[in-house]
UniProtKB/TrEMBL annotation:
The keyword Lipoprotein does not apply. Signal peptide: none annotated. It comes from the Eukaryota. It comes from Ameca splendens. Keywords: Cell membrane, G-protein coupled receptor, Membrane, Receptor, Transducer, Transmembrane, Transmembrane helix. This is G-protein coupled receptors family 1 profile domain-containing protein. It is a multi-pass membrane protein. Coiled coil: none annotated. Belongs to the G-protein coupled receptor 1 family. Residues 69-322 form the G-protein coupled receptors family 1 profile domain. InterPro entries: GPCR_Rhodpsn, GPCR_Rhodpsn_7TM, TAAR. Its main location: membrane. The chain crosses the membrane at residues 53-77, 89-106, 126-147, 168-187, 217-240, 274-294, 306-325. It is found in: Cell membrane.
């Protein structure tokens, strides 16, 4: 009887199969790296491509809307002379900071959180420096707006003499200058040595020390929020009493008193609008700083990107609030869209 032959894979074939498998795994690992040629490269974000496209599309749209709406605010207040009031100059400064958030910070955060960072360590440090300066300036503008409304509502007889265009412009300049110095304090180590905080290549990271983080929490959140809340509590009490006085005397006033009442209504409406502005500001900023109290190194956590998006989304909501509550903004948009601002004398148009 002939013996039956049984086929067994040779040892050489086993080695080949394992070598091919190892080669495929190494190739796959290299494809997942930001810089395959570097041993200390970061891994690419693991978000599915469809979710990544959707996320980038939504965030890019929000960034575009933020830029366009705040640009309309800037053009409106800059173009029409009737809008050159102290309150509107403060709104103009806030719109500039919001415009820069949409133009620079939002795209930078989209790039930083959804893909590898290919722009280098220097650009990363500059990005965080600009982020600190713009955010600090925005918070300072909110505080200045609160002070402006406090004086207008609680001390109306002194408003015209104390809150002048010259003083407001000087305060805005000091606000932006102070924001620049604060940013240098926060970023001094990263500006001297870019990339010192990153753990691998392809990462853009900012790690604040305990002292720097605590200082940021106090100067950019606790201190300004305390001032804003105290001022608006006082404004709210006075505004309610003035509104009651207007309703009780609305039926028996002279023409002169009617003008005064109309002025008071305008001030109260401005206070209400800016009150909504403050509430939205607190709603967007509180999650980030509240989380900071729990986790000091918030910028190194995956959830930090969502908190930063909410943080920046305030810049998109501000001009929407203007459009809802300020009729002059809607009229100004109409002049801009229909190109009436190109006509001679358009800067003297009456939008009120």
């Amino acid at each position: 009887m002939g013996s039956k032959k049984i086929y067994k894979p040779s040892q050489h074939r086993k080695v080949c199969l394992e070598s091919c498998r190892c080669l495929m795994m190494a190739t796959q690992e290299e494809a997942e790296l930001c810089f395959p040629q570097l041993n200390s490269s970061c891994r690419k974000p693991t978000l599915h491509w469809s979710k990544a496209v959707l996320l980038k599309t939504v965030l890019s749209f929000i960034s575009l809307v933020t830029v366009v709406l705040n640009l309309l605010i800037i053009i409106s207040i800059s173009q029409f002379r009737i809008l050159h009031t102290t309150t509107n100059i403060l709104l103009l400064s806030l719109a500039v900071s919001d415009f820069l958030v949409g133009l620079l910070l939002m795209p930078g955060e989209i790039l930083r959180s959804t893909t590898c960072w290919f722009l280098g360590d220097v650009i990363c440090s500059v990005y965080f420096y600009l982020g600190c300066q713009i955010v600090c300036a925005s918070i300072g503008n909110i505080v200045l707006i609160s002070v402006d409304r406090y004086v207008a509502i609680c001390h109306p007889l002194y408003y015209a003499s104390r809150i002048t265009l010259g003083r407001v412009k000087c305060c805005i300049g000091l606000c932006w200058l102070g924001a620049g110095f604060c940013s240098i304090f926060y970023m001094k180590d990263d500006l001297i040595q870019p990339g010192r905080s990153k753990s691998c290549f392809g990462e853009c990271m900012l790690v604040l020390s305990y002292v720097t983080g605590t200082t940021d929490l106090i100067l950019n959140f606790i201190f300004p929020v305390s001032i804003i809340i105290l001022l608006y509590m006082r404004v709210f009490v006075v505004a309610v009493s003035q509104a009651r006085a207007i309703r009780s005397h609305i039926t028996a006033v002279t023409l002169h008193h009617s003008v005064n009442l109309a002025t008071k209504r305008s001030e109260l409406k401005a206070a209400r609008t800016l009150g909504v502005l403050i509430v939205v500001y607190l709603t967007c900023y509180c999650p980030y700083y509240t989380y900071f109290l729990v986790e000091t190194n918030v910028t190194s956590i995956e959830n930090a990107s969502f908190l930063i998006y909410v943080f920046y989304f305030n810049s998109c909501l501000n001009p929407i609030i203007y459009a809802l509550f300020y009729p002059w903004f809607r009229k100004a948009i109409k002049h801009i869209v229909t190109l009436q601002i190109l006509q001679p004398g358009s800067c003297d148009a009456n939008l009120l």
